[in-house]
Design goal:
Blueprint: E1 2-4, E2 18-20, E3 34-37, H1 43-47, E4 85-87, H2 93-103, E5 126-128
Antiparallel strand pairs: 1-2, 1-3, 4-5
């Protein structure tokens, strides 16, 4: 997920600072952060960026930072230059089955069911669209 950074006050996020959760999304993000979108392609590139050595993985020194020099939202890319992707529809029974499988794992190892799932932990399958 892509979120807008903020300080402690809930209205302190002006959208000038964005972040992407590149590891396991921590619980309790729902209704506590503003999610702006989802990375549907290229998360593996973001996941290889080094984490900082400070608390919560923050960079303690400017030289530790890896600046992102450019980012584009798919809607801003000219249609002829876009990667054609297929995203699973979220209004289908199959998607509801996927959500339920993530909310309450049925494998033998899981003895207690969670009963809930944060939106940041909901995977939406994406794949390249077949060439026509």
């Amino acid at each position: 997920m892509v979120g807008a950074g903020r300080d402690t006050p809930v209205d302190s996020g002006g959208g000038t600072e964005l972040y992407v959760v590149i590891g396991h999304a921590p619980r309790q993000l729902d209704r506590n952060v503003t999610l702006l979108g989802r990375v549907v392609q290229g998360i593996e590139l973001l996941s290889t960026l080094p984490r900082g050595t400070g608390k919560l993985g923050f960079y303690e020194k400017p030289e530790q930072r890896s600046p992102i020099k450019a980012i584009r939202v798919a809607a801003d890319v000219p249609a002829k230059e876009r990667t054609n992707l297929e995203v699973m529809r979220t209004d289908t029974p199959l998607f509801q089955e996927l959500i339920e499988s993530r909310r309450n794992r049925k494998e033998e190892w899981f003895h207690a069911q969670a009963g809930h799932i944060d939106i940041a932990n909901v995977p939406i399958p994406v794949r390249p669209a077949p060439a026509h």
